[in-house]
């Protein structure tokens, strides 16, 4: 079910004084207020003892830090909606005070901008206080740390908040360029006819970050690249790039994403490379002998009619040369042209590149004859979304708006989460040896071998 009928009449943000709320949640609430989409009260819950006016000052600082041009009337509207309740999440009296503050709210949304270890505890306290009925619960990723823990967490959470009232955030699905993948594919006659094994050589997805884990060492060392971005973000992006056309019902897109995952065999660890950048173990919060991966490269397959036999390559890493997220659909090479003594060579590959990170847009690689020579050269046709279409909404802005109005389309369902954990589980159970790589490089050299027979990895931002 993608929709419930009631618009939220209260939003409760657990962890409102934390880093996620400061950087993402509060600026998103400002934008929703600006658009007239935030119509309910906002109750912040945190461990610290704060007065309402102190929370308001923190919220003001968060908004002004994020935005260059702040409308004081809009900000005042947002701040007037804010209330604060301080206390430990395991303290039952906190929920008594929360119940009083909610008053006669009939359809609250509880958003847990907290560590995942708190999800179940907060949900059970909400239920014990009689606050779970007709409420929606929004939780962050990761949902579990492996297949078994995810199943247990889901079983216990859905006993309190049924599937249609449990919203699992994957902020990548709230990115406008990620949603654009569907429109680019199915709204353009140019793309869909070549979007299959008949014309595609391979698919690549790269999530590169040019920074390390400084300031997040203790968190990241317990997570790693597989859990942080592969099991959730990148597999979800792959599903949008590979799924069949959606049709029939509000849950059409989630159903199509699920079809992709069910057609994917679990990862073979022999087709994976894990790396850790040099200097990672010296970062504060990281274990001195840590075996946590900061880089992962994989070869996957989708065993269905559209994609059978087409290799899919995924790589993600910290401390790489650039920050970029791209989906590359690499087309098959055309035959060499010959007539008489003439020969027109076409070296390299033609790629359709969907940029879903910074500098969002699409690049289409085509061939043009080099003047005076019988050889083609690559030429790129580029579309930059922000220049042509305007600034998109931020991911949390879109996802919080959807949660408030009861639209779960962009929130992964449990059956999808379960399948993605199934796919990566063998890599968690029997990972290949960890390889070191230099910061600023493209990871371990052995990762290059994965894609070598299919034209190699495309360098983000390059012409080939």
Secondary-structure map:
Elements: E1 10-14, H1 19-34, E2 41-46, H2 52-66, H3 72-81, E3 82-86, H4 92-102, E4 108-112, H5 119-128, E5 136-139, H6 147-158, E6 166-168, H7 176-186, E7 200-208, H8 217-220, H9 224-242, H10 252-262, E8 272-277, E9 295-300, E10 312-317, E11 324-331, E12 337-339, E13 342-344, E14 351-355, E15 361-369, E16 376-384, H11 385-389, H12 395-405, H13 414-429, E17 434-437, H14 446-451
Parallel strand pairs: 1-2, 1-4, 2-3, 4-5, 5-6, 7-10, 8-17
Antiparallel strand pairs: 7-11, 8-9, 9-10, 11-14, 12-13, 14-15, 15-16
Provide the residue-averaged pLDDT.
89
Intertermini distance: 42 Å
Helical/strand content category:
alpha/beta
Q: Strands of the largest sheet, in order across it?
A: 16-15-14-11-7-10-9-8-17
Identify the overall geometry: globular
Number of strands: 17
Under CATH, the topology of the largest domain can be stated as Dihydrodipicolinate Reductase, domain 2
Largest sheet: 9 strands, mixed
Radius of gyration: 24 Å
The total domain count is 2
CATH homology group of the largest domain: Dihydrodipicolinate Reductase, domain 2
Helix content: 25-40%
Strand content: 15-25%
User: How many helices does DSSP assign?
Assistant: 14
CATH architecture of the largest domain: 2-Layer Sandwich
Low-confidence stretches: none
CATH class of the largest domain: Alpha Beta
């Amino acid at each position: 079910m993608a929709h419930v009928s009631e618009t939220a009449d209260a939003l409760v943000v657990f962890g409102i004084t934390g880093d996620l709320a400061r950087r993402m949640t509060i600026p998103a609430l400002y934008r929703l207020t600006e658009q007239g989409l935030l119509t309910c009260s906002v109750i912040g819950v945190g461990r610290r003892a704060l007065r309402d006016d102190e929370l308001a000052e923190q919220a003001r600082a968060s908004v002004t830090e994020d935005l260059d041009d702040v409308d004081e009337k809009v900000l005042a509207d947002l701040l007037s909606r804010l209330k604060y309740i301080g206390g430990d999440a395991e303290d039952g009296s906190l929920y008594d005070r929360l119940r009083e503050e909610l008053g006669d709210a009939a359809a609250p949304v509880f958003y847990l901008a907290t560590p995942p270890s708190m999800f179940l505890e907060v949900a059970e306290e909400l239920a014990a206080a009689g606050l779970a009925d007709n409420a929606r619960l929004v939780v962050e990723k990761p949902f579990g740390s492996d297949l078994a823990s995810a199943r247990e967490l889901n079983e216990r959470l859905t006993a309190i908040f049924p599937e249609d009232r449990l919203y699992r955030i994957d902020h990548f699905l709230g990115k406008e360029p990620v949603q654009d993948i569907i429109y680019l594919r199915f709204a353009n006659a140019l793309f869909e006819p070549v979007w299959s094994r008949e014309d595609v050589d391979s698919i690549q997805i790269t999530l590169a970050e040019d920074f390390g884990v400084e300031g997040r060492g203790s968190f990241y060392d317990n997570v790693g690249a597989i859990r942080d971005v592969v099991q959730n973000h990148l597999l979800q992006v792959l599903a949008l790039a590979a799924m069949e056309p959606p049709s029939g019902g509000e849950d059409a897109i989630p159903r199509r994403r699920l079809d992709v995952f069910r057609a994917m065999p679990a990862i073979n660890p022999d087709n994976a490379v894990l790396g850790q950048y040099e200097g990672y173990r010296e970062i504060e919060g990281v274990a001195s002998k840590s075996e946590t991966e900061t880089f992962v490269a994989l070869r996957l397959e989708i065993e269905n009619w559209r994609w059978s036999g087409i290799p899919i390559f995924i790589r993600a890493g910290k401390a790489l040369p650039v920050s970029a997220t791209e989906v590359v659909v690499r087309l098959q090479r055309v035959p060499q042209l010959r007539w008489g003594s003439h020969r027109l060579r076409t070296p390299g590959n033609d790629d359709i590149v969907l940029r879903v990170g910074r500098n969002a847009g699409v690049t289409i690689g085509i061939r043009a004859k080099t003047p005076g020579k019988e050889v083609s050269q690559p030429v790129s046709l580029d579309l930059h979304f922000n220049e042509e279409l305007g600034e998109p909404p931020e991911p949390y802005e879109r996802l919080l708006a959807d949660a408030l109005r009861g639209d779960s389309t962009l929130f992964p369902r449990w059956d999808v989460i379960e399948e993605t954990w199934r796919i990566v589980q063998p890599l968690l159970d029997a990972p290949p040896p960890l390889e070191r790589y230099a910061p600023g490089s493209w990871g371990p050299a052995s990762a290059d071998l994965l894609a070598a027979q299919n034209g190699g990895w495309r360098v983000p931002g390059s012409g080939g």
